[in-house]
Amino acid sequence: MKGIFIWGIFCIFALAACAAPSNPAMAAHRYHASLTRIDFNAETQTAEITIQLFIHDLVPVIERQYKRKLEPEDSATADPLILDYLRSTFILKNKAGDAGEIKWVGKELEVEKAFIHLEIPMPGGIEGASLQNTIFFETFVEQTNRVNIHSGKKSATLTYLPGNKPKTITFRAAGKVEPFRK
Predict the structure, then answer these.
(1) How many whole angstroms separate alpha carbon 168 and alpha carbon 97?
(2) How many independent structural domains does the chain possess?
């Protein structure tokens, strides 16, 4: 009887091991998301942007895209690659439809997260501008990108899923919650 019990425990652990993800990045977390905050600075007419990414997602995506090893701590090598990638996946256009040039401000690294700081000139304000955020969509079909936008006391939230088109930034009335939109 004891042998059957031990065999049963062994089988349970064996099945659990087979069901576990084989990719260490997938084992670290099973969802893929980015969180971005955009603050419009009316004085400088710029969008001040912070993009929060999981390092477990960022490193393999950049390595696959540029076919070279990425060490996030090595700013001289990593920063230009990350900036180039973001220029193709995070596109903010003004009301006239012109894409603003992304300026690298810096990055902060934590154990699991990278905080990328950028600026984009937005003369005339950010309301009515168009934003497309396809970060990691080419790699993770379940990727979700959420963008919180602030201009003075006004705010907006945009959520991007694979297949979404660019969205226009429209501020909601203070205190009103915008429903989730695909």
Answers:
(1) 11
(2) 1
pTM of the predicted protein model: 0.80
Per residue in 14-65, pLDDT (tens digit) is: 444 444 444 444 444 577 999 999 999 999 999 999 999 999 999 999 999 9
* Residue among 155, 51, 138, 148 at smallest CA distance from 102: 51
Residue 76 lies in a domain: yes
Please state, in angstroms and as integers, the Cα–Cα distance from residue 85 to each residue in 43, 70, 127, following that order. 29, 13, 25
3-state helix, strand, coil in the chain (%, to 5): 25, 35, 40
Q: Look up the CATH number of the domain holding residue 149.
A: 3.30.70
Task: Say how far apart CA 85 and CA 34 lie, in whole Å.
Answer: 14
In a domain, 12, yes or no: no
In tens, the pLDDT along 117-173 reads 999 999 999 999 999 999 999 999 999 999 999 999 999 999 999 999 999 999 976
Q: Give the phi and the psi of residue 86 in degrees, each rounded to 5.
A: -65, -30
Tell me which amino acid residue 40 is: F
- The boundaries of the domain holding residue 63 are 29-168
Using CB atoms within 10 Å of the CB of residue 111, give its burial: 0 to 12 exposed, 13 to 18 middle, 19+ buried.
exposed
Q: Which residues pair with 144 in a beta bridge?
A: 33
Q: Is residue 90 in some structural domain?
A: yes
Do the Cβ atoms of 150 and 38 come closer than 8 Å?
Answer: yes
